[in-house]
Amino acid sequence: MKQDDGKNPNGLESVLELRVLLVDSHPEIWRQLEVRGSTSLDQVHAVLQVAFGWEDAHLHRFTDSDPFAPLRPIDGELPEALQWLPTQWCEEPGDRAEEDCSLDQLLASGLGTAFYEYDFGDSWLHRIELISSRPATKNSPSALLLGGARRGPLEDSGGMPGFEEILDALADPAHAEHVEQSAWVTEITGAQEPFDPGFLDLEAVNEELILVLQSRPGPTPKPDRA
């Protein structure tokens, strides 16, 4: 079956409004974005890296369903989530190249929801939910951060449980690991001021999105054949 090619029923380019939630974050770490529907997944990867403050230092993948959800047998067999990876990482027969799939196609496969996993060790899982779609104009940016809450976790901080332990230590000067964790965070961030987990600079993120997407235009996704 032929999937969506990034255009709305009138044949116009679509702009998709997304809510992306970092799964298991409490309080929630989320971003609200506008991204063109025809954007290839390798470009969506670049957008999410900037939006959450990641450093693109680990492996990643996209899936059309929660890769960690309990599976229910269908006709006696356990279904596997479809996954999209960079071409050079595709090794299994079912692996699909992210460069050949658009955001529209991914969301159509997952009925409006998809997942992005970054760092298979810490396993930062992002839930991508389609909020709305509208026709693009000639002035519509490739990607725009509309809003969000809290800064993204630090790289290599041990997943959400590890990151929360670090925040607890930072917030309590009497904590046994306060000095050690404060020194580690200063080394990682390169900043001397106290670490603020609630800080999010929308303007800075949008400026970086422009630069990143200009520097890596990426291939045009290939529509599936009927």
Would you give an account of this structure?
The chain is of the alpha+beta class and 226 residues long. The chain has two domains: 156 residues, Structural Genomics Hypothetical 15.5 Kd Protein In mrcA-pckA Intergenic Region, Chain A (Roll); 46 residues, no CATH class. It contains five helices and eight strands, in the order E-E-H-E-E-E-H-E-E-E-H-H-H. A hairpin with a 7-residue loop joins strand 1 and strand 2. Helix 1 packs antiparallel against helix 5 and helix 3 crosses helix 4. It starts with 13 loop residues before the first strand and ends in an 11-residue tail after the last helix.
Radius of gyration: 19 Å
CATH architecture of the largest domain: Roll
The proportion of strand residues reads: 15-25%
Quickly name the level 1 CATH class of the largest domain.
Alpha Beta
Helix content: 25-40%
Which strand order spans the largest sheet, edge to edge or round the barrel? 5-4-3-6-7-1-2-8
CATH level-4 homologous superfamily of the largest domain: MM3350-like
Q: What number is the mean pLDDT?
A: 89
CATH topology of the largest domain: Structural Genomics Hypothetical 15.5 Kd Protein In mrcA-pckA Intergenic Region, Chain A
Basic shape: globular
Which parts are unreliable, with pLDDT below 50 for 5 consecutive residues or more? 1-6, 219-226
Domain tally: 2
Order of helices and strands: EEHEEEHEEEHHH
Instruction: Tally the helices.
Output: 5
